[in-house]
What does this fold into?
Amino acid sequence: MNTSDTMNDTSKKVRVRFAPSPTGGLHMGGVRTALFNYLFAKKHNGDFILRIEDTDQTRYVKGAEDYIIEALKWCGIEPNEGVGFGDAPYAPYRQSERKNTSIYLKYAQKLIEAGGAYYAFDTEEELEDMRKRLEAAKVVSPQYNHITRMNMRNSLTLSHDEFQKLLDSGAPYVIRLKVPRNEEIRFYDIIRGWIVVNSSTIDDKVLLKSDGMPTYHLAHIVDDIEMKITHVIRGEEWLPSAPAHVQTYKYLGLENQMPQLAHLPLILKPDGKGKLSKRDTSGLPMFPLNWHDERTGESYIGYRESGFFPEAFINMLALLGWNPGNNQEILSKEEMIQLFSLEKVHKAGAKFDPEKTKWFNQQYLRKKDKYELAKLLEPILKENNISADLDYTAKVCELMKEKAHFVREIWEFGKYMFAEPNTYDEKIIQKKWNIESQKQILEIKTLLQNIEPFDADNIHHALDNFSKEKGKIDYQLIRTLLTGVSSGPSLVHIMEILSKSETLNRLEKALQKFSVTH
RNA sequence: GGCCCGUUCGUCUAGGGGUUAGGACGCAUCCCUUUCACGGAUGAAACACGGGUUCGAUUCCCGUACGGGCUACCA
It folds into this structure.
């Protein structure tokens, strides 16, 4: 048997889900999880579903859901089913709304009937006391489990009468998973292989909270069953609770319908230790789009607003923990889909690399057509009160793009293509401007005047000839007079694009400004 | 602490019982270029450690170390 086969039933349509909770802006780790789900679904002609796991009302953040939807759209990894993406055929896709259908309660009761779950009436204080007692007794793993549950107030320890009385009185209760003692729980993870855990190390997880909401542990299982999910692709942080989930499927008698599991490695901080956090992305954003948390008042800048292309962003993300099996690094979404496989996902966590992220953007920028770039540059020009026609802007983009990582840099490096310089590199002027150079500039001005047509080739030849006949030309000085700065793209191309009149105009201005008489 | 997962250049990674351990980012040098950049070439740079198994281990097994995750009526 090929246990690594990701499709245990080829007749079953692949259905995967991305199931974030709306507790804040979706960060890049979440985007990568969504991306891998998307790629896997597309690869197998399956469905990709967005489900919102909003079972914790205390952590609900307004705007987070819309943010998630907008972010997925910007990244081009759109679900074909779920909240904001069709809402059919398994609606609702928000767990808070699904709760109203009593679906979770139904499953919880099924578990109780099967002897896999029980009611627990312990108060917060009682739980706290238990933990303290266990700690004082130096119990190795203090938790609500097969041993300690017998000292707590639950349907396993209470007499039938006491239990019924409590239930009738409306006393708050939770439903807990009754994890068996000393059994081997094993499951196959597509990325990690077989994982075996002794059930005694797992605690009796709360499945249904006292407010009637399910916890993640119950909710995702119920929804995955109901929504016919075939593969659960999620972050590594879920690995420790996976055995409890497997046990839940067992109690439900649905072990053979359990989705296949794949736990993705985490994205780590670029330097230092630990999971990627909002604080430490070395100058690059944490979020795909600008995110403002109304609750904390904190704002975070997004990749979109920082000038990243979505293709570059997801390309970078895809290669954090996955490789296509060849040495290709620049991959279109279609190529990623074609090449994607969970077996090629790395096991170890990957440190985020800001430098390489910029490199990806540069690669995509260089592939863009000049008119496409010009259109992207236009709003930036507008911000700076520059008006230029699209053809002209396109020419500038073509000239400047080799140097830029971001569209914005085309403006930053090439301002002088849109307006004459108002400052000049002082060092260059001081060092190079004198009677002789002034004379040469004057001569070159006359030379340029007579070039027709005024294109890069002609200018190049003319200057070449001049330099052969009359001595070496100080190109750096001319560049500085024309652009204000001492380096940049090919000077003759700058002249061509600026046009003859503007080139002459700028030389004249500079001559007047720096003119010396003796 | 306990449980689980992991460990190939600084970083992302390929590979896998016998390889000059490959690529990419970054770095350095050179070439191209009247400058910068782009491009090209070259270079420095890695199998965590200790035991096994084996003719041979970076690759398989076991330990150790280190890193990470989890340890809530959060997801």
In short: The first strand of chain A starts at residue 15 and ends at 18. Confidence is low (pLDDT under 50) at residues 1-9 of chain A.
